[in-house]
Amino acid sequence: MGDPAGVGPEIIVGAWTETVIHEWCRPVVVGHPEVLRRAVRLWQTGMEVRTVDSPEQAEPTPDVIPCIASGSDDAAAVPPGKLDARAGQAAYDAVVTATRLALDGQVEAIATAPLHKEALHQAGCDCPGHTELLAKMCGVDDYAMMLYLGPDDSLGSPHGLAVVHVTLHTALRHVLDQVTEESILAKCRLADRFMARLEDTRPRIGVCALNPHCGEGGLFGKEEQTIIGPAVERGRAEGMQLEGPLPTDTLMLRARDGDFDAVVAMYHDQGHIAVKLLGMHRAVNVTLGLPIVRTSVAHGTAFDLAWRRRAETGSMIEAIRVAARLATGRRKDNPKPELPNPKSPI
Known about the structure:
By secondary structure, the chain is α/β, with parallel strands linked by helices. 40% of the residues lie in helices and 15% in strands. The strands form two sheets. Strands 4-11-10-5-6-9-7-8 form an eight-stranded mixed β-sheet, sandwiched between helices. Strands 1-3-2 form a three-stranded parallel β-sheet. β7, α9 and β8 form a beta-alpha-beta unit. The longest helix is centred in the C-terminal third of the chain and has 20 residues. The radius of gyration is 20 Å and the shape is globular.
């Protein structure tokens, strides 16, 4: 459910009204039921929030929201739109519960609503955000945040556009220490595997430069010559369709126009700004490298909009769609016993 002070609960309820999500999957919410009921009252939908103990008990309909309770009742006392350690704890508890369900095979994917990183820190969690927390719980070191835009008339690629980040939630002054041949190559591999799995084709991947004008032959920095270029050559030797390093301003335009299916960005804002300009409310966050499927909205808690029924639900709907699609593909690759209901819980 994410941070109960933010837009998470209301975008879940708003997305629930879209009957198409019930064709994609069998959804169940993890979070505090009373917070969810408050969001139902905000939307005035008349939906019933029904507490269940496990996904197997969930019988979702457009009018019934099954909710697996997590965390303490402190979550229900959190004021809307305010930074609160209790909200950070509630968000943490929901992520932990959902991840354990996924690791145990009780759900086939999770789609997360936004949490507030400062509230998470105030609650005592030392992870910077969802991505790092999930990686820690899953016991993986090779992971990445990816923003994904599905196929759309505004994009030239029929496969959509994925942007993977070499560095993530880190101060800009530390980025140079983390951009290495190995870290770039690892993210290229993750992007290659994801797009191949999603679209069943070998993707064309553009790799961003780090410095202005691609370093201008070394005048503005030599990382393109000494680190990024060699990583690209190694990736090509492995069979990946890589091109780069390329100046990011023109690379993103080429990606929009269909020259690339995926882009590897060197740091957070280098990738995020471009993707959100292209499709803020369609963008989906996907965590690569996990043994479970996890997607998320590509926006934050939006305290300035929270609990006013002004939040956009498009990113949550798309996060559910992509999660369901990835879960279906994963099931084909790694068959597991089906749950009683033929549709997959998220």
